Amino acid sequence: MTNTHSNPNQANEIVDQLKASGALDELFSKIDSGEVELTGDGGLVPALIKETLERGLGAEMTSHLGYTAGDRDAKTTTNSRNGTYAKTVASEAGDIEISVPRDRDGSFTPRLVPKGSRRLGGLDDMIISLYAGGMTIRDIQHHLVSTIGTELSHETISNITDAVLDAVMEWQQRPLEEFYPVVYLDAIRVKVRDNGHVRSKAAHIAVGVDMDGIKHVLGIWVQNTEGASFWAHVCAELANRGVQDVLIVCCDGLTGLPDAIEATWPDSLVQTCVVHLIRAANRFVSYTDRKAVSRALKPIYAAANEEAALTALTTFAESELGRKYPSAVAVFENAWDRFIPFLQFPPALRRVIYTTNAIESLNYQLRKVTKNRSQFPTDDSVVKLLWLAICNIEDKRAREREKEKGKGKARKATTGRLVEGQITTNWKQALAQLAVAYPDRMNPYL
Question: How far apart are CA 244 and CA 228, in angstroms?
């Protein structure tokens, strides 16, 4: 049972008053001695919920009939009370049997526990929270039975989590801002059952940085393979939702993406993630040499300009490590045209666009959620779980921002969910440098 208008401060004040009056001392004594159990069958918490529900249902019946029980003189209708019927509802505290009042003409429709409802609202919220945290439906079944003694079917739990699909679709189709200075694109791999076969698919996630430096998840797309036609569809969808211009798209060298970007936003710059290049360069490097190779590659991406970077690459290629691992040299040579764009920018802006780490930190948390699932039944189920997980992550971030705000740190006031991330590091400096690099495109939005 949930109450969106509840006041936690008021509840705490009531508890403090009861403690101060000594009214809770006897109860605490019985709890400590084991005479009273808090939860489970016959526990104090279920009993309090039962009493609260039955009192609320009685108040609803009084409002429906227009007179209180036993007050026949105030009766102004031919309808009257007609006893009660028993009903068991599942709750966060376990199964609770309540007595629901009924009237003679059957016109009473309870709102606190609606007809046909077998669960209190808080239990649905709990199940969705557990699902968003990475638990499978079977895990949730076991958890509910072992912790609160409530047994729900696989279908019931699945239906509860499916109830968010409308919200997911609304989010996936919501209007976007017309301008994002930077957009990051990355993907995580998931296994999905497709036409009787389990296939490895990529769940692609786009994160846009707005003018205030706040990162927003723009959408999630599940696809078998990457290619120009797929990315053209994604870019067209973002454009149809309102994105008119993007300055820089940072990605990991996805096939077909540059063509799709240029077809949708002709003036956008596509930057290959340097961290992905370094990982690819180390793919065939022995473990003992990886640190040395990574150090030797640093002068390439830390160079002052393209000429200096090319000189550094040549130096590495001619070194002992370069001759030992020619594949590492080939990685940079093959990606050179998409690697060098960020070299034209000053250091503060380079730190923003040279890597997709801004989205990989999110993906790392999403992988923790998806790792418990050997496979997903549908593409929609992938998007549903990732959306719930992102909302869950953002709720945590929002609480952290509130704590920082309370400590006196100046941060932009943001709310969790749908779906805002942290403010990009050194964003003010990067924004100023973007304004210098792209004055005509930036000025209308400053």
Answer: 20
pTM, full prediction: 0.69
Tell whether 158 is covered by a domain.
Answer: yes
Give the type of residue at 53: L
Domain membership of residue 409 (yes or no) is no
Six token digits for residue 8: 């936690």
User: In 10 A of CB 54, how many CB atoms?
Assistant: 17
d(CA 309, CA 298): 10
Phi-psi domain of 70 (left: phi exceeds 0; alpha: psi -120 through 50; beta: other): left
Residue with tokens 């105030």: 74
pLDDT digits (tens, 9 = 90+) for 153-205: 888 778 777 778 888 888 888 999 999 999 988 888 888 888 888 888 888 88
Whether 353 contacts 438, CB under 8 Å: no
Read off the pLDDT of residues 417-431 as tens digits, 9 standing for 90 and up: 444 556 677 788 888
Q: 389, 357, 391, 359: which is closest to 371 by C-alpha? A: 389
CA distances from 296 to 20, 333, 384 (A): 69, 15, 43
Residues 6+ apart with CB under 8 A from 169: none
Does residue 332 form part of some domain? Answer: yes
- Position 408 in a domain: no
Per-residue tokens: 155: 């279908």
| 33 and 107 inside one domain | yes
Residue 272 main-chain phi, psi, to 5 deg = -75, 135
Number of H helices, E strands in the chain: 20, 8
Tell me which residue range forms the domain holding 135: 122-173
Q: In this structure, are 272 and 367 located in the same domain? A: yes
Counted domains in the chain: 3
Considering the domain architecture, whether residues 231 and 369 belong to the same structural domain is answered as yes
Name the 3-class secondary structure at 50.
helix
Residues 24 and 138 reside in one and the same domain: no
Exposure letters 278-301 (e unless 16+ CB within 10 A, then b): bebbbeebeeeebeebeebbeebb
